## 1
Amino acid sequence: MSTKYKATTTEEAYFITITTVGWIDIFTRLNQKEIIIKALNYCQQNKGLEVYAYCLMSSHIHLLCKATNGYILSDVIRDFKKFTSKNIIKVIINEPESRREWLLDYFQKACQHLKREQQFKVWQDGYHAEIVETNWFIKQKVNYIHNNPVKDKIVQFPEDYYFSSARNYAGLQNDLEVILLDLF
């Protein structure tokens, strides 16, 4: 796999987007969103992940983040994707889900081309990591991340979307703590 868009260094911040296969809208249910938030919390507490901005949409998550304490972001994201994949499938199987058969079939077919043995594939390969090098880039990406739900007409104001760090920056309650950046 090419390293062009891969976070292979430590202590550098990246803008990344992690997307479900086929852009499937899996994060429309609270139980699926909670898997992602809990996994990010775990990575923050145990894998040196620092999150500066995020937004969890129905089929993807945007993060402005970095790995610290000797961790490499590509390893953290690999583990995050593996863990959340298993838990997403478990929730589809064990909890009420009107699209159960369709989702499981789709995620099974998504891994048929893989060389390694795998039953389900939830996430697309890669995560399009872009290294953060300027303050302008940071501001642009934070604005992009926070305005994603506004652009999709889910909310009128960024801070109204619960699964976004726009709430943290507005001083509102959120289930995922972030490191606030001085953007002005």
Note: The first strand starts at residue 14 and ends at 19.
## 2
Amino acid sequence: MTSSHTSKKQGLPPTAWAVLGLLSFPGERTGYELKKWADSSLRFFYWSPAISQIYAELRRLEELGYSASTRSGPQELRAKRRYAITDAGREALAGWASDTAEAGPPVLKHGLLLRVWLGHLAEPELLRAMVSDHLERTRGELAAVREAVAHAAEVPEWAFPALALRWSERQHLVELELGEALLADLAEPAGAAAAAADADRQGGGDAPTPG
């Protein structure tokens, strides 16, 4: 591998490794097929890509020699390009997957909680409606995760994806429990949230952080 390829490998984002990971399972796939698989697996615990992002990563991986593509012949009505992992790509991916220093901590960006944090600027009923909507969406996601778990269980090569999906199933159950508890907290009219809102309207109170 040239020094140029080495530097590009070191600069690959996790999303590129995720796309290469999708290619590491048997068979060749189009970008559209990779998008469908990511939406039925990766999105439950890591990332939901745009199709343009998948194709951008595929071009990068092919430039590095980590993937190769073939174009369909004239027998297909619409020409398609199918991608497969190369030996070099599989070796690089195995090295990345085994590097525990690269995993890093999980990142939580909870849009609903950011709005609850700013609850002193919103009506309590609106906040409760937001949490209720979040619970409904989470129940829908949980059903989709369970469907993906059942599908993965039917494919022997997907034993480890099935483990990740089962983790996601448990995570969604915890999210439902936390959401129900938050809804109960917001239902207390004399609770801390209402007191904080009153204090804000009166212009008093310190910031809710130490220091």
Note: The mean pLDDT is 86.
## 3
Amino acid sequence: MLMRTDPFRELDRLAQQLMGPGTWSKPSAMPMDAYREGDEYVVAFDLPGVSAEAIDIDVERNMLTVKAERRPVTRADDVQMELTERPLGVFSRQIVLADTLDTEHIQADYDAGVLTLRIPIAERAKPRKISIGAGSGRKEISG
């Protein structure tokens, strides 16, 4: 069995515990993937354990902001936690979108803890052919 190790993972987890959960004024970062698929850009955010109602998506000019909050699960009084590694609090990510993207038609889907945004490429940014017209011949400049 091959195991990949990340020497900084434990350090990141420890720093997260010491700094506490993210707040609305100082949110923690959320992992994401971004790629182009055909005529749209796709951005996927990992938000496991977050309800769809706790996700806030805003676009202002070309700045996309995604905020989410994961709250602790209420447990019975006789429950004693042995290990807790899943971060709680507020998570946020801001992305500057290119002017070539159509921010008026962003689609958002949330499934299995993954928020997926699909941002279409604006028509003016798509490649197009330019035809060459037949000229009327050479013109003489007289002076």
Note: Residues 9-19 form the longest helix (11 residues).
